[in-house]
Amino acid sequence: MKMRSFRAMGTDVQIAIHARACHSESMVEQVLDKVVGMVHDMEQRLSRFHPTSDICRINRGRGQWVEIHPATFEVLRLAREAFLWTDGLFHPCLGAVLEHMGYDVSFDRRREPNEAPVVHVHPVISARCPYELSPDGRHCRVDPGFQLDVGGIGKGWIVEQCAGVLRDSGFEDFVVNAGGDAVCEGRNGERPWLVGIEDPFSRTQHALTLTLDSLSLATSGTYKRRWTHHGKTVHHLIDPRTGQPSSSDIVSCTVVHPSLVAAEVMAKTCLLLGSVEGIAWLSSRAQRGWVVVKNTGEVMHAWNS
Q1: Between the CA of residue 62 and those of 58, 93, 101, 288, what are the distances in Å?
Q2: Which listed CATH number (1.20.1250.20, 1.10.3980.10, 3.40.50.720, 3.40.430.10) goes with 55-148?
């Protein structure tokens, strides 16, 4: 098996490939180099922390049409669909809230929190998405008072693009994993891929282990990206109904789905809704399985064949 690990998008990225006899060592290395370069290029376009990124330029030009790369347009199109599908619970315009809570640089670089007052977003549930996309597929305009942050869905989309490059290069059995958002293509030799779901209360153990065969999974959790703001511990998963970090009883939610972007949207939405509403919401929608870890330590899960 050929492995490649690197740091990008504020997390550890791992690629594992079961190469076949027809794949030379140099060919595998060239494809891996291409994938790594693509990840960094896409991160530069989609990150709200890179001043020249499309997202930063849109945020600086609030209320104006800004020309963007087609890849950025596609991510924003998917994020807008997710906003509408979840009645605004999946909200891609909470960058200002995170910034005023001290998450104004990538988490790797964050030092002391910014003690500016916490801002609250406008009520958005069942309201219009606060940005527009042009019919030409090249421009975006965000409403004044909002800032785009497509970190989660952007990461999932980038991982899916990496998987597409590997498929187009003739690889049939591989994993691309970015901080718990993973595409597991084909099989690990004669067996399915074995994926451990991290236990938020014991980093050395797994809450559950899943076997995946050509499926994707995404995890949203409140236990990793945490910091202190005005003497209070906060995290990065903002509930758009309150403008505050989620206080639901779910600490971690993992969703298995053929589409990694869909899994990302579903995992975050379930977490924000809490175990009762969230699991009911998940169960009424097409997915292959889910794992929920509650703040009591209870692990709940289901698998749909």
Answers
A1: 6, 12, 20, 39
A2: 1.10.3980.10
